[in-house]
Amino acid sequence: MELRSRSRALKVTLSKNPTIDGDDTQPVDESLDDLEQPKPYAKLVGVRNGISNIELYDENFVCGRGGPDSPVNYSFSALVKDRGLYNYISKIQFSLTRDFNENVTRITDLSRNGTLINHEELEKNVPRELHNGDLISIGIPRLIVFVYEDMTDCELPEELTRKYNVTSHALGKGGYGKVLLGYRKRDKMNVAVKLVNTQFSIRCSRAVAKSRDIKNEVDVMKKLNHPNVVKIYDWITIRKCSYMVIEYVGGGEFFSKVVDPRYNRLGVGEVLGKYYAFQLIDAITYLHSLGVCHRDIKPENILCTSKQERCLLKLTDFGMAKNNTSRMKTKCGTPSYNAPEIVENEGNEYTPKVDVWSLGCVLFITFSGYPPFSEEYDDMSMNDQVLKGRLIFHSQWRRITVETQDIIKRMLTVDPHKRPTAQQLLDDKWMQCAESRRARHDVLVVTENERNNNGGSNRTMKVRENEEIAVKRRRIK
């Protein structure tokens, strides 16, 4: 979804709220060396522990649990210990058919519980063409078993594919490229692969600047190691394309959470809001302690680790970040989240406190469900609203404590000299609360699980899979 269209969901008016043996040696029969060995046309890459990689040669290939009356080419026998899941797989799950004339592979669902391609359920007994990188799931989107890899169609560099399986499933898209779901081959861990095409005319200064931004983003991310900041694992540049392999965060954008209909566009409330606030304030405090200023903090650049109400948040997209905050003058960021000193910028220097302002805007939305500044306030331009620090508190703020309202106002102080630093916010009495302690505890638990080879994460994923399987079984019955 484009930023502009998503932003409309938060727009406001004055009258209402913004919207993973001994035998002898035989002589060589040299005539065999002249025989051309068959080559697979494709491969099914197993992305779950216990599921093998399968090279495809034959015209027809069938997968499933199999049985005396149901022969298959590949059986999911490695999953037999997981009775709930194994019994969920049909004897004949799906078939693959290769048309060697057209060089096309088609998949057909033959199961009871369904087969999905890129999270979309197939119509039973209706063939569908497979494309390089397609995800194959069983029953539910989360239960991904294979990535289809077409051996005749690989546009990605060997430097990347040697270490990662890159799927065709898009996680997101920006102005200069897209983000695809991938798997690290050595441990099948999920990753996100950001593809950026930098092949522009050398006369296009904007493109040259963007190439510089990519290197800057990588340099910044390499020095960061915080549980609320997305990690970078690899950076590969081949010809005119860059591939950033970063941490996969599967819960979607924070934007979607703050505008979730369950909250009636009235904000997530005081308790949950402070749970999120601690994580974000701790993240920018960490950044600023390393001399890094993000400069584009907004709900779309904050990712959620899960769809659950209480989850970890991860700050992402460091394309605008500054590694040396001693000299920041560039006018950048997103207008409705920009601090006054950026809005009125005429080459004057500003400080990392611009992140505090932007986070103040994010938290304002989090607690209330609408943005503090909007083009739809027709009595004043948005720039003027920002420069004056004009805030309108609608009725939902009545359920938010005065202390929280005061913190938001302090973060949105026009004069940067009077605006608190991130460290001051973190040390404030407002953050010494039960929800902050709970957030800190949850962050530590997840960090420890990640340190232990993602054991905790895998267990959590298994629980969620079984829950979704149970739901679908009930629906089918």
TrEMBL record:
Gene3D superfamilies: 2.60.200.20, Transferase(Phosphotransferase) domain 1 (1.10.510.10)
UniProt keyword list: ATP-binding, Kinase, Magnesium, Nucleotide-binding, Serine/threonine-protein kinase, Transferase
Residues noted as binding ATP in the record, renumbered to the chain: K194
Pfam families reported for this sequence: FHA, Pkinase
Keyword ATP-binding: yes
Bias (Acidic residues): 21-33
Chain residue ranges for the region called Disordered: 14-33
Family annotation (SUPFAM superfamilies): Protein kinase-like (PK-like), SMAD/FHA domain
PANTHER family: SERINE/THREONINE-PROTEIN KINASE
Name by which UniProt lists this protein: Uncharacterized protein
Species, as recorded: Caenorhabditis angaria
